[in-house]
Predict the structure of Enolase C-terminal domain-containing protein.
Amino acid sequence: IPLAPHNISSPIGTIHACHTCAASQNFLVLEFHHLDNEIWNTLTAEQDLIKNGHIDLPTRPGLGVTLDEDVARRSTKEDLGFFD
């Protein structure tokens, strides 16, 4: 059965989904439709993760991307406590 997960996540979640899909023998496509979000490309130090409809998986340890914490702090509601 082909695997075609739906993804509406941040760049961090998207890279996580890509790593998961890459480990699946029956991966077909990762659905994505969120590039119109103004901060999406600024949330990680690695800009423009999607090029020509494709994502090259990073080979660095972990997920291979770095959260820009300043951008994340500015775009998160203060009362949620994510950075406490």
